[in-house]
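Example complex used in Figure S2.
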Amino acid sequence: MELFANQVLAGIATGAIYACMALAVVMIYQAIDHLNFAQGEMAMFSTFVSWQLMQWGVPYWGAFVITVVFSFFAGIVIERLLFKPLAKAPILTNVAGFIALYAIINSVAGLIWDFTIKQYPTPFGSSPFLGSQLISTHQAGMIGVTLLMLVLLFFFFRFTRVGLAMRAAAALPESARLVGINTSWMIALGWGMAAAIGSIAGMMIAPVVFLEPNMMLGVLIYGFAAAVLGGLSSPFGAVVGGFLVGIFENLVGTYIPGVGNELKLPIALALIITVLVVKPAGLFGRAIVKRV
Amino acid sequence: MTTMLNVKDLRAYYGQVQALHGLNFSLNEGSLTTLLGANGAGKTTTLRAICNMVRSTGAIEFEGKPIGTRSTENVVRLGIAHVPQGRGTFTTMTVEENLQLGAITRSDKKNIVSDIERMYDHFPKLKERYSQQAGTLSGGEQQMLAVARALMLRPRLMLLDEPSFGLAPLIVRDLFRILGKINREEKVTILVVEQNAQLALELADQAYVIETGRIVMSGNAKDIANNEDVRKSYLGY
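Predicted assembly (529 residues):
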């Protein structure tokens, strides 16, 4: 029983990171109808930036804040330079753009910081949380930071005018323009926020998976699985999906013999395919009907 | 009377297809004008061209300023509210959020609250349903909401695209009565596109008739309503 509780709590902790990545993916998907394959690489690059800052002597939380702000503006710049010109291009052109972005960020990170695995610090320590063996302080910290961020995002979208305008632009771009909303900048803002959320996910997971240019690959695939499970049209669903996928991953790894770390990625992919076959809209998403 | 909107030689295109063939018309400040015509005559395209939602050439002047090259959102910010065909309701948001969106470009936060109250006075049904998802409203209520959302901009000019579409006759009467009231009391210039010619001519003071992308008739709404030939050939009643 203790093993079960332990695995569930650990699943919630990594699930928090998947939830962040899923949320970032859904935010961009809502705005431009495309999956950002480079979301993980953007997060990885941000994490390297924070690591570099700490190498230069900036304290952890200072580096954290600077990195989040940097990622926000970097996300906006990427949208303005690369994806705004592609706004009306066909799907495949956009996919090529995302893959290019993925490759570029991955290589540049490798070029600057090389591909050796680096330790990444945690501000929470890794002792048992409140004296309990079930969960470490870092895992508790991951959950706490994610929940705090989710609450802030909820208030932003529910109670601020910019949040309202962003929701309107994502839901009905044409109507949004007709009330005077600059939808193009709302998309850029969405990119900025997605990049900032991703950077938080990267900095939180880095002590667990260690810092290197390919650290986010598995995380992003689980993030995709979470987004698909929750429904790509539902930010709330993405978050719930993240936690569910985290728990699922850990329980399968623990209780089904033969599934070790090697088979964890195929499980995520199997989950994506199963959801797409059985319930394409996901748990909380709306079925998308396109008029032709 | 001063001219509020002046349109000269307006041509609009959907891809290779030309939908408007050199339209000329103008709206006087404070007037309530209707643009009539059959299906496919170019009524909706005319409204979309004013808001730069379709590729067009020609000159469009709003209060003396050329607006032809402005983006849709910047046309709206000048005080031109457009109630599109199909109403453009944000169906997953609440009634109140829809109203707030109408005022999203305004910076006078204090007045927004009182304006929302004023909308509830105009449309009491909306007050009952303020926290409800807009998509759950009936067609008539959604049309009321669309008009209210447009008014939240405090527009100088309001463009309405077939507000009567799909509504029961009684509701249409009610809606048109409110439009007349808004025009008189709030001094909003209104251009309303309609297929329901009879009702629109009762409401309006000026009228234009459009056929296959050209204005074929213009004048006082009463004269047009009483002109037997016009009624038979263009208005079909």
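Chain A has eleven helices and no strands. Residues 2-217 of chain A form one domain.
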